Amino acid sequence: MSETSKKDTEFNQENINEETTDSEFEEVEVIETSIESELQDKIDQLEREKAEFKDKWLRSAAEFENFRRRSTAEKSTWIKNANQRLVLELCDVLDNFERALAGEHSDGDKNYQKGIELIYKQISNILTREGVEKIETDKQDFNPEYHEALAHIPSELKENKIAATIQNGYLMNGKLIRAARVAVSNGEKPEGTTDKKADKKKKKKIETGGYDG
Prior knowledge:
Layout: H1 3-81, H2 84-102, H3 110-129, E1 132-134, E2 147-153, E3 162-167, E4 170-172, E5 175-178, E6 180-185, H4 196-208
Parallel strand pairs: 2-6
Antiparallel strand pairs: 1-4, 3-6, 4-5
Helix pairs in contact: 2-3
């Protein structure tokens, strides 16, 4: 082989080696790029899953907190109203004491009356501590939310005013446990009564000579 041919062969071999090296580098770069892309996709997927799990956890935590608060409120309400039936029975006893105190008593009954008043106050205080309050009725406007009308009667009061209380009504912790039973004024004057304003006008006319009967 001539010297020239030998050099050409060596040159070609070097070129082949260089091309092979470049090709290997390209393949490695492609592989690395592919791996990085796969890793990034995996990271993105994990981030999405993490966000989803976090959102679900926050929702579950909020729902549990709402459930806890609701359960606590329901339990508190149940405890407050658990003895409602007993309270109503005590209210009946209180009403009876109130009626007894409203009656007339002789001088000899004073000590007895004081004893009744003491018991009445004790029961009243117990009910007050339990959140019980009597519904106001005396000369109040009739309110169907708290009052039950059993009759409409003539009265000196204006129409729709409560003229008489038949049975007391009560609230317990702001909740109606018994409506007050009442008689409501129909706006008509009772028979046998006169209009005081009309009487005054009539009297004035008579005094000034302006009334002709």
